[in-house]
Amino acid sequence: MGYLLKHAALRYGALTSTELAPIGIAPQEWAGLNCLNEQDGRSQKEVAELLGIDRTTMVALIDQLQVKGWVERRPHPGDRRKNTVSLTKKGRDILRRGMRIIDECERMFLAALGESAAERLKHDLHTVIVANQ
Questions:
Q1: Which residues have C-beta within 8 Å of that of residue 40, sequence separation ≥ 6?
Q2: Half-sphere exposure at residue 68, Cβ-oriented, CA atoms within 13 angstroms
Q3: Can you give the pTM of this predicted structure?
């Protein structure tokens, strides 16, 4: 099973990387923007935990997103030692463009299963992930 999950993830990653490249965003950057959009006002540390990446990797990712003008850091209102990260207008725009591409990648990747089996697979994977947290 590990082999299957790993290779499915590698192939899906390659597909999304190829499809997102023309708009200048990597899958990791898109995932970061998507998470930040859904978790507006959370600290970098909290977002890193949600993405399952270490703090150093998160700082580098936020640096990349900030250089591209897609996010901005602000001091946390309740704790000056923390930063919150928010999407800029430019970041929301690239997120919307990427979302359409990601939706199409998912459709293409799961097309061999048919719609109901694809939904079931996503549901079952989510169930397994939640059960093993």
A1: 86, 87
A2: 23
A3: 0.83
